[in-house]
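Biotin transporter, Centipeda periodontii DSM 2778. Tokens?
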Amino acid sequence: MIKQIYFIDKYAWRYLNIMKLREIILCGLFIALVAVGAFVRIPVGTDVYTLQFLFTLLAGLMLGARLGALAIGTYVLMGLVGIPVFASGGGPGYVLQPTFGYLVGFIVQGWVTGAFVRMGAPTFRRALIACLLGMVVVYVFGISYFYFASNYIIDAPIGFWVAIWYCGVLQVVPDFLLCVAAAYIGVRTQKAGLWL
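Tokens:
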């Protein structure tokens, strides 16, 4: 009996260690992908888009709520301590940038996306809705902070509706396409057994 318990415990412990290692590897991978995504610039007309949003969506889908938010939060923390992983560098002064709200939004979006997609079967439809909810979260945090920082921190006044127009309405189509891409990739990776 004692030998059987030892045998089960030994293999259960090994399985737990493998799972922890897998979590660490995938979280590290997504921290790197989000960082690289900030520097992949795609010019569309007069605007420039990055792949950062795509990778934060995938972090939520593939890692789940807790680990998705943790990976994105670690990325943000790395930037705040001075590692130049943000699109415009890094350091604690980045909190004063008008776009800092988007980074906070990414953390919450990772949690929301991961939590919603796991409420049922991870179909394309559910994954797309999860990504769209994440997009709304990012817009709420990003636009709100952009308006606040522009008007009260850096003294570059901007109207509320102008902020919504430039930071929201004009970004909806490209961000929607990134949501569709993330949902498609997310479902494919789930079928391949890559989700945590």
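The chain has a mean pLDDT of 89.
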